[in-house]
Write a structure and sequence with these properties.
EC number (chains A, B): 6.3.4.21
CATH architecture of the largest domain in chain A: Alpha-Beta Barrel
Structural class of chain A: alpha/beta
Organism (chains A, B): Actinomadura algeriensis
CATH topology of the largest domain in chain A: nicotinate phosphoribosyltransferase
Distance between the termini of chain A: 33 Å
InterPro entries (chains A, B): Aldolase_TIM, NAPRTase_N, Nic_PRibTrfase-Fam, Nic_PRibTrfase_pncB, Nicotinate_pribotase-like_C
Pfam family, one (chains A, B): NAPRTase_N
Number of helices of chain A: 16
Number of strands of chain A: 19
CATH superfamily of the largest domain in chain A: nicotinate phosphoribosyltransferase
GO molecular function, one term (chains A, B): glycosyltransferase activity
CATH class of the largest domain in chain A: Alpha Beta
Strand content of chain A: 15-25%
Number of domains of chain A: 2
Largest interface: A-B, 111 and 111 residues
Radius of gyration of chain A: 25 Å
Oligomer: homodimer
Amino acid sequence: MDVGEGTNGEVTAAAGRGTALLTDRYELTMLQAALRSGTAGRRAVFEVFARSLPAGRRYGVVAGTGRILDAIEAFRFGPDELDWLAANGIVDEPTVQWLEKFRFTGNVWGYPEGECYFPESPILRVEGTFAEAVLLETVVLSILNHDCAIASAASRMVQAAQGRPLIEMGSRRAHERSAVASARAAYVAGFATTSNLEAGRLYDVPTAGTSAHSFTLLHDSERHAFEAQLASLGESTTLLVDTYDVERAVRTAVELAGPALGAVRIDSGDLAVMARRVRDQLDSLDARDTRIVVTGDLDEYGIAALAAAPVDGYGVGTSLVTGSGAPTASLVYKLVARADGPDADAPMRPVAKRSSGKPSRGGRKAAVRRVDPHGAAYAETVSTGEPAPGPRDRVLQVPLVRQGEIIGREPLRDARDRHARAVAELPATAVQLSRGEPALPTEFVDDGPRP
Amino acid sequence: MDVGEGTNGEVTAAAGRGTALLTDRYELTMLQAALRSGTAGRRAVFEVFARSLPAGRRYGVVAGTGRILDAIEAFRFGPDELDWLAANGIVDEPTVQWLEKFRFTGNVWGYPEGECYFPESPILRVEGTFAEAVLLETVVLSILNHDCAIASAASRMVQAAQGRPLIEMGSRRAHERSAVASARAAYVAGFATTSNLEAGRLYDVPTAGTSAHSFTLLHDSERHAFEAQLASLGESTTLLVDTYDVERAVRTAVELAGPALGAVRIDSGDLAVMARRVRDQLDSLDARDTRIVVTGDLDEYGIAALAAAPVDGYGVGTSLVTGSGAPTASLVYKLVARADGPDADAPMRPVAKRSSGKPSRGGRKAAVRRVDPHGAAYAETVSTGEPAPGPRDRVLQVPLVRQGEIIGREPLRDARDRHARAVAELPATAVQLSRGEPALPTEFVDDGPRP
């Protein structure tokens, strides 16, 4: 597939800006040194994993896989990038020449998007020469650390909402491009819609919206504002009722729209009390099908606290795009095995640093979700040998890139469906909001020094 | 200036992807309703401010202004955007036609980039028709909420470092594009360098880097790895010494590089203890000018705790790009005044919502930083009338866009210098890391109903 063509929105968009400089400088200087020392061509295996989940979280959610595939495809050094690298002395001329021809030709395996993960789960594995695999470190981690953090928070909110729809509306509280990725990640985790139009265009996430207080204030009266909105958007629209006085606004809204009014939105006050009052008022006005949408600094705990309130939908902003206290997933990208020499058949050797505090396990790893006869997951097994899944177990890593060719693309809807299944399979404790241990234990099976 | 030409990197880059759909759906549906009700052309004044600073913070830092100007310039609805809006029924045909011709023709005033701000400081003011000003809401807030959050955290780290240089190296912990903006914001706040190459290319932020554990592990021994790095990057490079055994690594490093070795990096362990040991060892090896750079989950508190340690530079990652506990600045974009009718000379009226919990003050506001004869700032005055600055006071809002023309661009270095001056002028309590009240009180002068 040519970059800039094809049907994938992000690839087309990315053609305007490559991803190759979304990279830490040291990746390129390490490349230069390795090219010179003759080690750049050694085969290497890098793995992405989290040493732990954010404090108290019971599972993580893999998201961003599709965006990584787009980023790998767009990872080319064009004339602009190369000129800048050369002019600023970032790397030497032989390295510039190497980068000019660079295209990732390795293999990538990973947990499919939407899957759950746990501490030490090897959620992505990049195999290639050291040179080509080290270059992807920064952009791969950027995407996964962001998107997994957002999806992991979003999934808790979806669980807390117990089937009521969630609108993602945090774009204004996040960097303008991370907002688009957040909307995508929230959709994978089960949000119904997003306010973000670019997420609609790039990723086909369903979009939704209501109106702002400024729209009411623009008009000479709330009545005029409601009339204007109804005339333009129809009676199924959502009217914002808390600019002045909620009770008066609800009365005006139903008077103008009739009982077929789609919904009202409450953005302030004690949402449980307000929702109860508004529900009673709507019912008394025979607007029994008019829904109540609540917004205003909601997070998973605020959503859960409204479980008994007559609420029909939640809008979530800040807490979603900031990962509800865990804005990054703390995933790392570690060299776990490399060849002893430059030849393609040189033996592979597991490697790991031994410094204090941050130990890691060497060797190329496989992972299996253990599932009992009742369909309940009970363990995550990580092994350095070939996986030996039982009849209901799921081998977790799937091929995403084969010899440089992207083979792992899928509709976003598939990731969303997969996530719903993966959470349903976890022990019931997984969806408790209280702080706890990971819902599944990670078990290691060390099959010895084979990488 | 034509979008896609000119010397500004971000504008050129933005040409590949416009900013018009980095917008919440409701902005466009409110536009549609206002076009139909005849209120879209009413003159309007929107202001950006924070109701409060993040808990315990003593000042905020304005950052992102330059990026907002680029985003406004690139805010056009091209055929791709319009086709998508029409095909998906987001807005009706008259609105699509209006958007096709849209270009922002209003005025923007704001605190210059790098300036400090406090609760209720009107850091940006957008004036135009309601239609054109409401459309900018999402992207303006996205940029400011992100960049101000990062710069505000970065400034505290700079103060904690007391003159020692800081390297921004958080790209891998943030969305790949917010990483670039974070590097830019950190530079405004006083960071010396960034690891992010795209920030170097787009914004001329100086870049820096060391090497990773993977580079050492790639080689047959640490000695081979150091030899390779020194051969390629020279003796002024920074060698990472904690892959295996720090003491042995330092000995090997100085043996290979000689006393002119640029620096060593320590990424794990008790950094204060390790730095002391490594300093003693380096001195005993006569490598007295070899610097020590420390990294590893540092935030402003960790930096401050190392004040007495022999550290020559800090690398900061996660805590920087996540705003060190405050990943968004909680800035809002509120309609504060609008015309009574459609004519250009219709009288302006201050407006504000009256719902519970989130009151706001109507009326177009001016702001002045009050400065005493010793050059010390002592108050932030916000008034609905014209400002009346004393001889040393500083009028805070400057023109950024005049009738749609971008007039507020400046070199990023100017914002960085401005920030250093603005912090130096604050009371000494401002730079304490402990939780406290805003360093300056915000005083309101209400000159009555004139907007």
